Each structure stands twice: as C-alpha cells, then as structure tokens.
C-alpha cells in the first residue's frame, strides 16, 4: 500500500506509531520486571 500524498501518510502513520509505542512500553515493562526478579533471586541465593 503506497500513499499517494502527504495527507494519506499523515492519516496512516500515527496509528501504527501509537500501537508500537504502547507495545514497546509493555514489552520493556515485562523485561524490566523479569530482570528485577532475576536480580532478586541471584541476590537472595548469594546471601542465604
């Protein structure tokens, strides 16, 4: 799908950008949570 002019790009682009932003935010949050859990487990195993 090739947009014919700038206004079509303007209408199409923001929606995927928004979805990408939300998806990346969720994705990063999940990875940070997993990383924190791993750090806590490693820290606990060292000092117990």
UniProtKB/TrEMBL annotation:
The chain crosses the membrane at residues 20-43. It comes from the Bacteria. Keywords: Membrane, Transmembrane, Transmembrane helix. This is Uncharacterized protein. It comes from Capnocytophaga cynodegmi. The lineage of its organism: Bacteria, Pseudomonadati, Bacteroidota, Flavobacteriia, Flavobacteriales.
